[in-house]
Amino acid sequence: MGFLDGLMGNASEVDVEKLEKELAGILIEGEQIQSGYKVLRDSFLFTDRRLLLVDKQGMTGKKVEYHSIPYKSITHFSVETAGSFDLDSELKIWLSGSDEPIGKLFKKDSPIEEVQQTLATYVL
């Protein structure tokens, strides 16, 4: 992921093995990461049990908020692919009890279709 992509909010895929080592104390026994994406210091990942948002806070990033979303809480989602003039793809996820979606931007060559398939596998 390029630095400018991160500044613009574009997500890029990260190594699952690296995430599993980094989040060993957060994942429950038997939980497996399916895919993960990073925007600057923050990341979001799909496990076989939940969507996990990782928000690194402060200047050093030592303070971290882990936001777990069970797939059953996702009411619907949308994926918008990149076009000729709009070079970014976008993912939006709506949760039960919330009017505003969680939104993430992906650069043009990101695997947005894989993200959609992962969500569909666990939500539908």
In short:
The chain is α+β, with helices and mostly antiparallel strands and 124 residues long. The protein has helices at 3-7, 16-22, 112-123; strands at 10-13, 33-39, 42-47, 50-57, 63-70, 74-80, 89-95, 102-106.
Structure overview:
The protein has one domain (3-123): Bacterial Pleckstrin homology domain (PH-domain like), CATH 2.30.29. The chain contains three helices and eight strands. The N and C termini lie far apart (30 Å). With 124 residues, the chain is an alpha+beta fold. It has an eight-stranded mixed beta sheet with strand order 5-4-3-2-1-8-7-6, sandwiched between helices. The model is unreliable at 1-9 (pLDDT under 50). InterPro entries: PHb, PHb_sf. This is PH domain-containing protein.
Task: Name the descriptors.
124 residues; alpha+beta; PH-domain like; 8-stranded mixed β-sheet; 3 helices; 8 strands; globular; disordered N terminus; PHb_sf
Question: What string gives the helices and strands in order?
Answer: HEHEEEEEEEH
Multimeric organization: single chain
Straight-line distance between termini:
30 Å
C-alpha-based Rg, rounded? 14 Å
Uncertain residue ranges: 1-9
Number of helices: 3
Net shape: globular
CATH uppermost class: Mainly Beta
Portion in strands: 35-45%
Strand order of the largest sheet: 5-4-3-2-1-8-7-6
Main sheet summary: 8 strands, mixed
Organism: Halobacillus dabanensis
Protein name: PH domain-containing protein
Domain Bacterial Pleckstrin homology: 2-123
